[in-house]
Every structure is written in structure tokens, then in C-alpha cells.
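sry for the spam today, last one i promise. C-alpha cells for design, 302 residues
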């Protein structure tokens, strides 16, 4: 069994955890309404606690430069936090229901994308209070990913993944394949593919390049489970794009090889649904966040 580091401190289910872009810190968000910041190295100290949400935190994202954290909450807001000062900079209000998912743009302006049970996805500039764009969907939006070249990617209760061009808000691709709700979306490190997790117990990989020929589904990965809890279980890419990982309701962390589609790891240890996973940007370490109120850092073979 690989060496594992346990990070404990949250007082309720942990729904999300993400490494900072440089890998020195990680942030976790919980049903206890708090965001904890931890050092990745050494004793993994909890060095800050961010409070200000009035309900569970469902998703987190770091700004591309690592200076800010964006948090999505059941309290219908998304908050922008100064990661160094540990202070809330602003609260983004505009959604009429739970904010399920948040994703940051990869570079340039400090833009972020949110998806909500109010059936909209909204684009925000973190420096301002009001949203820049709002895209209405037919059903609740449960997962979002900020794409390359002015695109945003959304998924929800209609089992489809939608790609929109922000220049005219037109839908430029609809990805069909999942047969149940999309719970997680992550853009690949090179920006050409998106990984999706669905309540149909499949993780799928799609081509999101403009003008991609024919069927955009490139692969699907089996093993990770969902259950009656209907948690929005998320997925992740390794920084080199060669592995993908996913949480699972069966309390394991799943890691697959992208090229062979083979399952490489099924990592036990958690005593509750694993709701989020993230790969360290530099080291062969995987982070997992679970309903057992625990975070684990596990070493993978390089």
C-alpha cells in the first residue's frame, strides 16, 4: 500500500479539494461551511480557515495565478478569496439556487464559470460583483469547465455536455453519450479534451477542439460508482495528461491510464463516498476528499 497522509479537521462531509497551481498548498471545502488551506509538504499543517458561506461548499477552484480561490455553495453564492490573506474579497450573487460547480479560466483575465440548480451557467470577472454572461439551460447545471479559446463547457440533468462560444453565446457542440446526470467536468492539461463523470457509472473523455470530426467521444472508463446519495462526484487529470482519476461512492479512488484505458489503481482507505480527487501539479501524489470528513494524500508510482 502506498504511503498516505491523512488531513483531518473538517466537521462534516468534504465535497471538494484542489491543489494550488504551484502545488505548495491545497484547499478543501465542506458541508461545515468552511474552506481549509493546508500545506502540501511536511506535516501538512492546516494554516488557514476561510469562513463566510452560510451553507455547504460544493466546489472550489484556484485562479490560474494561485492568488485567489473561488468557492461554490448551496447558499446560492460564489465567493472570491484572497489565498494569501485568507480573506473574502467579494461574494458573487446572481444565481437563484444552489451553485454546484465552479471553474477558473486558464490564463489572462481572472474569469470564472459557475453552474447552478437555477439552470444557468454564469461567467464572472473576479474583480467585479456582477456576472459577465449568463447561459440559460433547460435543466439544472451540475458541472462546469472553463475551456480554451473563449469556450465554456457545461453538464447537467439532461445527461448531455454542452460547449458554448462566449463570443456569441452560441452552442458549438453537444456531446451525447452519458445516460444519467453529469457530476464532474475537467479540461485536459493541453485544453483539447474534457473528462466527464456521470451517474451512469462511467467516466468519459471527449474531444472539445473546434471542428473536431465525427464522434467526439474518445474513451470511457469503468469502475467508479454512484449511489442513492447522488453526490456530485468529480474527476481529474494528471498534469501530464496520461492518467485520469475519479472519486466513487464505493469509498475508493480510481485511476486509469488514458492511452490503454486500463484501471491502474483502486485506492481504499476512506470510510465514505469519495467526492473529489486532484493530482498534484508536480509530484506523483493524488488528493482525495470524502464524506468521512477526511482528506488523504496518496503516493502513486511515478
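last one done:
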Amino acid at each position: 500500500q502506498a504511503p498516505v497522509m491523512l488531513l483531518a479537521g473538517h466537521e462534516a462531509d468534504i465535497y471538494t479539494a484542489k491543489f494550488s497551481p504551484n502545488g505548495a498548498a491545497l484547499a478543501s471545502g465542506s458541508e461545515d461551511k468552511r474552506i481549509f488551506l493546508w500545506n502540501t509538504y511536511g506535516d501538512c499543517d492546516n494554516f488557514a480557515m476561510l469562513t463566510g458561506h452560510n451553507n455547504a461548499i460544493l466546489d472550489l477552484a484556484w485562479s490560474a495565478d494561485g492568488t485567489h480561490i473561488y468557492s461554490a455553495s448551496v447558499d446560492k453564492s460564489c465567493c472570491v478569496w484572497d489565498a494569501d490573506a485568507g480573506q473574502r474579497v467579494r461574494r458573487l450573487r446572481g444565481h437563484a439556487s444552489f451553485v454546484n460547480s465552479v471553474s477558473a479560466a486558464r490564463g489572462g483575465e481572472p474569469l470564472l464559470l459557475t453552474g447552478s440548480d437555477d439552470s444557468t451557467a454564469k461567467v464572472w470577472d473576479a474583480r467585479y460583483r456582477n456576472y459577465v454572461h449568463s447561459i440559460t439551460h433547460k435543466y439544472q447545471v451540475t458541472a462546469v469547465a472553463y475551456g480554451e479559446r473563449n469556450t465554456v463547457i457545461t453538464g447537467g440533468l439532461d445527461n448531455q455536455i454542452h460547449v458554448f462560444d462566449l463570443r456569441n453565446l452560441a452552442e458549438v457542440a453537444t456531446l451525447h453519450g452519458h445516460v444519467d446526470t453529469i457530476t464532474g467536468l475537467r479540461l485536459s492539461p493541453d485544453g483539447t479534451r474534457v473528462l466527464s463523470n456521470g451517474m451512469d457509472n462511467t467516466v468519459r473523455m471527449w474531444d472539445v477542439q473546434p471542428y473536431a470530426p465525427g464522434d467526439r467521444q474518445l474513451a470511457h472508463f469503468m469502475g467508479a460508482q454512484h449511489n442513492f446519495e447522488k453526490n456530485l462526484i468529480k474527476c481529474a487529470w494528471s498534469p501530464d495528461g496520461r492518467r485520469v482519476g475519479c472519486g466513487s461512492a464505493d469509498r475508493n479512488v480510481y485511476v486509469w491510464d488514458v492511452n490503454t484505458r486500463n484501471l491502474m489503481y483502486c485506492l481504499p482507505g476512506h470510510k465514505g463516498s469519495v467526492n473529489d480527487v486532484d493530482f498534484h501539479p508536480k509530484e506523483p501524489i493524488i488528493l482525495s476528499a470524502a464524506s468521512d470528513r477526511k482528506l488523504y494524500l496518496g503516493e502513486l508510482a511515478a
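The chain has a mean pLDDT of 96. ok im logging off now
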